[in-house]
Write a sequence for this structure.
């Protein structure tokens, strides 16, 4: 198992170091993994004048999985668009053809008070959002701003091919089979042809998964239902732009951005694993960040790329244990809990691996 480790910027190196600690501990237990680090984002620009240096892309291509921290920082905001850290991230996703983005929204019962929603609405929440990541209006052509009839007009194209819809639908159905066997496909088929096709193709794919209960919801209703009664959902599958918005909304249900991992997969289940949060420049370099989203991303790596559910459960279980022990980084701290640093949290997870 080869893992390309890309710490990135801001808190990236601190949180990735804790995830590497977990992998090191598993190696001492006999797990065979090879890890190699490379710069990405601002660190890539600093090292090689490119947010995705060729050597980083080569390493990621050669690896079975990629573990990424976060990219970005105010010192890079003045760079021209193609050199900005975030461009490195978009490019690596595209280059590796990571078309399926998996974002769980999961709430540990002990953290229910950290959510802005009532604890009874969110306690026990466990949703998986599968977002298509390489198509849709973000990539569709034509796009641009031009002058028409004496005024400027901005335009983008929402476009999905059958094959793009089919492959992400399959990922979502497969995941639903391993969870609660409920899949909700989210689109806007009442007004968009692109969504009409989306719905048709998802229904076609669904014929291969008779055990999965398939439902359909318009995106505006889904946005409302996510805050009204989020526990009605098991797995959601949706396109790139709707998924972008809904997954951020769902992440807020769980209270802390520092707790949520993500995976982005290609057709062979090769994946890039990263926390959903950014590089948090406001707390970078101070050993304050919450490393749990990054550690949980390693859990997802074992579940989806290395197909080792037992090891994934062991990592997730260790995280549950430290939360139950009352250990909290600043972002999830509440009265009566023990405040710990980023590195102490990493050590505690290693100790809890058992
Ligand atoms: P952010 O997620 O970095 O931070 C938002 C807030 O959450 C900050 O107050 C931060 O301190 C806090 N936070 C985030 N992660 C945390 C953690 N693990 N532990 C404790 N607190 C945490 O978002 P932002 O401030 O909007 O963006 C900062 C930079 O990150 C920007 O350059 C942005 O472009 C970049 N960014 C990168 C990614 C990514 O790499 N995937 C995602 C989002 C933003």
């Amino acid at each position: 198992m080869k893992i390309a480790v890309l710490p990135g910027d801001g808190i990236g190196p601190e949180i990735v170091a804790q995830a590497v600690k977990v992998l090191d501990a598993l190696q001492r237990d006999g797990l065979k993994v090879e890890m190699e680090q490379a710069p990405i984002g601002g660190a890539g620009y600093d090292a090689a004048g490119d947010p995705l240096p060729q050597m980083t892309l080569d390493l990621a291509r050669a690896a079975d999985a990629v573990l990424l921290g976060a990219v970005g920082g105010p010192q890079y905001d003045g760079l021209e668009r193609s050199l900005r850290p975030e461009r490195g991230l978009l490019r690596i996703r595209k280059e590796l053809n990571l078309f399926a983005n998996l974002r769980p929204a999961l709430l540990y019962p002990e953290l229910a008070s950290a959510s802005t929603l009532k604890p009874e609405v969110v306690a026990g929440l466990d949703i998986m959002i599968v977002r298509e990541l390489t198509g849709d209006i973000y990539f569709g052509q034509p796009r641009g701003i031009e002058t028409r009839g004496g005024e400027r007009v901005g335009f983008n194209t929402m476009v999905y091919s059958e094959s793009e819809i089919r492959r992400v639908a399959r990922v979502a159905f497969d995941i639903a089979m391993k969870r609660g066997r409920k899949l909700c496909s989210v689109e806007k088929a009442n007004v968009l042809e692109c969504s009409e096709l989306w719905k048709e193709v998802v229904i076609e794919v669904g014929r291969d998964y008779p055990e999965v209960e398939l439902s359909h919801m318009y995106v505006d209703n889904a946005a409302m239902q996510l805050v009204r009664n989020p526990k009605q959902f098991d797995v959601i599958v949706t396109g790139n732009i709707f998924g972008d918005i809904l997954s951020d909304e769902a992440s807020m249900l769980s209270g802390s951005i520092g707790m949520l991992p993500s995976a982005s997969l290609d057709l062979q289940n090769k994946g890039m694993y990263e926390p959903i949060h950014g590089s948090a420049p406001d707390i970078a370099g101070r050993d304050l960040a919450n490393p749990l989203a990054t550690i949980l991303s390693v859990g997802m790596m074992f579940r989806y790329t290395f197909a080792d559910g037992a090891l994934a459960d062991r990592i997730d279980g260790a995280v549950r244990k430290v939360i139950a022990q009352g250990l909290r980084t600043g972002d999830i701290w509440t009265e009566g809990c023990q405040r710990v640093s980023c590195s102490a949290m990493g050590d505690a997870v290693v100790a809890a691996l058992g």
